[in-house]
Specification:
Elements: H1 2-20, H2 25-57, H3 63-111, H4 114-119, H5 122-164, H6 166-213, H7 215-220, H8 224-276, H9 282-293, H10 302-315, H11 322-325
């Protein structure tokens, strides 16, 4: 049953990406070029550092060191510039994509009968159509720039490490497989809680908006105590969900720290063994440790990814009515 649910969720994400993201072909091609450029620079720079260290230890002249240092600084500046442009392009693409999703959601909500609008407050509908889609925009931009980019970067790193030594390449491959498995295993518990948190957050804003508009009527009818009782009841429901959602994120964050610490320890052990055996130089040791530390950047996007996967499940296939009808369930 859980496998069917997983395949259904993947189908929802794919349908949403193909409906809203893939039509932006020109922007995607431009972003892909920027990503490949960034990845190439990230893979080249450690090679320059390795050459610098090994050359500095030899009795050669200092002239190659000057060239290596100039190349490293130049590539680093170009990498930062390309990263800024790629981030801008990713955000621009995310907003264009989600603006179309907002339009479809708003159109769908307007076509629903009055029973839906009577059973849902205006604030909760606005939060669904705009607030949830904002979280999805972060997911689109972070997914393209960081998750997809880091996947390609990891492939490049594994190929480079296999080129250096089969043992260190195999170690990196096992480490990546283990890290992905552990993080995805924890994410399957965190994402449903994020979905529930976003749903009750929409209810909260709907409640606040409704009663702020009717403040005079509430006071005139002496219903202040009743409204506040509902407010406190909603707060009691929100607290455990918020706590669970952030505990899920914290557990992922702590797990990634532990996993990458184990990965670094393995890199140190393998590098020490190969260096002692005379198979690699000290510059190659630094290169290996630098490349092993690179995947750590990917875990910074986990909060956006968790929220995005949650919103993807809630907002998928808006044309079928799931996006707005979820509020009435």
């Amino acid at each position: 049953m859980s496998k069917k649910k997983g395949f259904k969720s993947i189908g929802h994400y794919y349908a949403m990406l193909s409906r809203y993201l893939l039509p932006q072909k020109k922007a995607l091609i431009g972003l892909a070029i920027l990503l490949f450029t960034t990845i190439a620079l990230q893979l080249v720079n450690p090679q320059i550092i390795r050459y610098f260290i090994d050359t500095a230890q030899s009795d050669k002249s200092l002239e190659p060191l000057y060239y290596a240092a100039a190349l490293f600084i130049g590539f680093s500046l170009i990498q930062q510039l390309v990263s800024v442009i790629a981030t801008y392009a990713g955000e621009n693409l995310a907003w264009r994509t989600t603006n179309r999703l907002r339009g479809d959601l708003a159109e769908h909500c307007l076509k629903l009968d009055m029973s839906f609008h009577k059973s849902n407050t205006s604030g909760s509908i606005i939060e669904r159509v705009d607030g949830d889609v904002n979280a999805l925009a972060n997911f689109f931009s972070s997914f393209i720039i960081h998750l997809a980019g880091n996947l390609l970067l990891m492939i490049g790193i594994i190929v480079l490490l296999f080129r250096e030594n089969v043992l260190i390449g195999a170690g990196m491959l096992l480490f990546v497989a283990f890290a992905v498995y552990v993080i995805q295993w924890i994410r399957k518990f965190a994402v449903p809680v994020w979905a529930k948190w976003r749903q009750i957050n929409a209810e909260f804003y709907g409640f606040v908006g409704e009663h702020l508009e009717g403040t005079e009527d509430t006071r005139a009818n002496g219903a202040t105590g009743f409204v506040m009782n509902r407010f406190y009841s909603l707060m009691r429901r929100m607290l455990p969900l918020r706590r669970s959602a952030f505990l899920g994120f914290s557990s992922m964050w702590i797990t990634t720290i532990i996993v990458f610490a184990l990965g670094n320890a393995m890199a140190f052990a393998i590098s020490a063994y190969l260096w002692k055996a005379g198979s690699i130089s000290i510059g190659t040791v630094y290169l290996i440790l630098l490349l092993y530390g690179t995947p750590r950047e990917a875990d910074r996007e986990d909060p956006h990814a968790n929220r995005g996967f949650a919103e993807g499940g809630r907002q998928s296939a808006p044309h079928s009515g799931s996006a707005c009808d979820a509020s009435a369930d």
